[in-house]
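[agent] plan:
  1. take the single chain provided in the ticket
  2. run structure prediction with default settings
  3. attach structure tokens to the ticket
  4. add a short note for the reviewer (M.T.)
[agent] executing step 1
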Amino acid sequence: MPDIFIAISFVFAVSALLIGTGLKKQPGLGILGALAIIGFSLWLRRESLASLGFGFPPNWVQTILLGLVLGALIQLISVAFLEPFAEKVTGVPHDHSVLANVKGNWKVFLQWMLVVWVVVALLEEGIYRGFLMTEIAKIIGAAPWAIGINIIVSSLVFGLSHGYQGRSGVLSTGIIGLLLGGIFAWSGFNLWLAIFTHGFIDTIGIGLIAMDADKAIQNKIWKARR
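[agent] step 2 finished; step 3 output follows
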């Protein structure tokens, strides 16, 4: 019972912190706070990063290539269908203002790549999938129904903590979170495929924005459907 209570406390604390700072458009503070809580959790339980899913994958090359394929597929589906769907449902456009200075500026693009691969893909997957999903599994177990609930709950937190992207961003990010959660579970709670998939999703997405190609793709597809 005490172990379950501790896991519930960690899930609640990290989720509330990430959602609160995301809605207040201060996601960096949420990430730092979550890392502090995770560090305390590892110290308290005398666990290593491997307990969060950072153990080596069976095959690095295969994991990276599969991450590239999945990342490209998810990002293209997101740009072509998911983002327009989210905007139609919510009635508001995605807020990509944080990336406004990346258009046509490859120096800024390379700076964002550093952020994506060092901060976003690595830390976000470590927090949302590696920590939250592992803690939730300690509470409700790893039966198929429990894994489904786990993916949904962690994805809700993932989506809401991206509140700085507007309501459309919350919806589309939450759906992508479902896919990343599924990848993490399918990988046996090993993080690396989810990390590489996430990294390539953001790399391709920011690259499309830098070339002003995201809207061009949407316009071409949706005009052709009319």
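[agent] step 4 note for reviewer: Residues 2-224 form one domain.
[agent] ticket updated
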